[in-house]
Amino acid sequence: MLGEYRITGKGASGIAADIEGAVGAGALHPGDSLPPLRELARELDVNPNTVAAAYRLLRDRGVIETGGRRGSRIRARPATAPRDQIRIDVPDGVRDISTGNPDTALLPSLTAALAAAARHHAGAPALYGGPPVDADLARLARAGLDTDGVPGGPIGVTSGSLDAIERVLAAHLRPGDAVAVEDPGWGSLLDLVPALGLRPVPVAVDDEGPVAAEVARALRGGARALVVTDRGQNPTGAALSAARARQLRDLLAAHRQVLVIDDDHVHGLVDLPLHCLSGVTDHWALVRSTAKAYGPDLRLAVCTGDTVTVDRVRGRHRLGAGWVSHLLQRTVVHLWQHDAVDPVATARSYGERRDALLLALAERGVPAHGRTGMNVWVPVPDETGAVTGLLHRGWAVSPGARFRVRSASGVRLTVSPLTLADIGPLADAVAAVLHGAGTGRYG
């Protein structure tokens, strides 16, 4: 199982440190199976609960993965590697609906916006010592946030949602702190948390967002932060309902020390109202990215939050990148001022394809989920079999392992590349390879 290597240690932290050190030194390799709990407990003369605690630590740090009856094994990639590497090669002739990219036909042209930014730069170039946030961008962002009922707060600008979330977490937490995360959830966030030395606490999700009982459990267990996707959750399409938001706000009101981060990355392409959790606790942030509505290469997100949080993010930014390019900021200003994206029409386009796929799958006896956004999540009994079977039928889908911590297997289907004519053939292919049924909860 482990060749000549022998695990040592007595306490959970000691056992975990020994295994992690062996991985770093190359004595244990990706894919190596670890001994069953009771077997290792007998070898080390410790309680099986001690070994179980050590394995939990290693799993939370991204060193190992657990597979139920298949046991635990060293992960096939380092914890700091992006989960996007968990993908399949797409052969010629296979339709790729795995990427999570927006429909390029719905993205606005940047030609006029970039030209306007260049003209503005010619008259007032950004220089060292200037304000990090363009005044017009801050004004427009704040107006949009006010319209959606987001509490008042200063505006910061970062290079995308993940950059903002990383900076907010680092502003308040220390290695070892627990962070409640959606499961299944955004793969990049699930990698970021352990990469920062933080401990992810998975929280199950249903169509209305994080399950209240799961959040309560995480808070009782000492979670120092909660990250929630307000709308268009990746990969499930969940969106916080008004009722669920009230439940979670009531829970958080008794835990004012918890850092809350609202991720509203699909702003501009959804038609459901925003129900955020911001403002209930002492420290909070809400992040809005331009990537999904205006294009992934427009690397800009605006964030607001309590004064302390935004000031810390801005201060740390000054010591690193300094600021986000004002050329990008002015580009976004022009896009916003000229209503370059029609959120109603964009939401309708994604919704027609997403809802048609959900209906077609349901008619074929395949439960699936996708309340908002551009993805549909299909629970499956055998993830590898489902991915392989669909590939053989001409469809490349995203393995659910990219998005899961402890939740059940699934696959993600992105509707962006689809036409309505594609819906029937795709649903037929999914139904042909699936035999189990999903549940109302993704976990």
SSE blueprint:
Elements: H1 12-25, H2 37-44, H3 48-60, E1 64-66, E2 72-74, E3 95-96, H4 111-123, H5 135-147, E4 155-158, H6 161-172, E5 178-183, H7 187-195, E6 199-206, E7 209-210, H8 212-220, E8 225-229, H9 242-253, E9 259-263, E10 284-289, H10 291-294, E11 301-305, H11 307-318, H12 326-337, H13 343-363, E12 375-379, H14 383-392, E13 395-396, E14 398-399, E15 410-414, H15 420-433
Parallel strand pairs: 3-13, 5-6, 5-8, 8-9, 9-10
Antiparallel strand pairs: 1-2, 4-11, 6-7, 10-11, 12-15, 14-15
Helix pairs in contact: 1-3, 2-3, 4-12, 6-11, 8-9, 13-15, 14-15
How does this structure look, described?
- This protein is α/β, with parallel strands linked by helices and 443 residues long.
- The protein has 15 helices and 15 strands.
- The chain has helices spanning 12-25, 37-44, 48-60, 111-123, 135-147, 161-172, 187-195, 212-220, 242-253, 291-294, 307-318, 326-337, 343-363, 383-392, 420-433, and strands at 64-66, 72-74, 95-96, 155-158, 178-183, 199-206, 209-210, 225-229, 259-263, 284-289, 301-305, 375-379, 395-396, 398-399, 410-414.
- Strands 4-11-10-9-8-5-6-7 form an 8-stranded mixed β-sheet, sandwiched between helices. Strands 12-15-14 form a 3-stranded antiparallel β-sheet, with helices on one face.
- β5, α7 and β6 (199-206) form a beta-alpha-beta unit.
- α6 (161-172) packs across α11.
- The longest helix is centred in the C-terminal third of the chain and has 21 residues, at 343-363.
- It is globular.
- The two termini are 30 Å apart.
- Mean pLDDT is 91; it is low at 436-443.
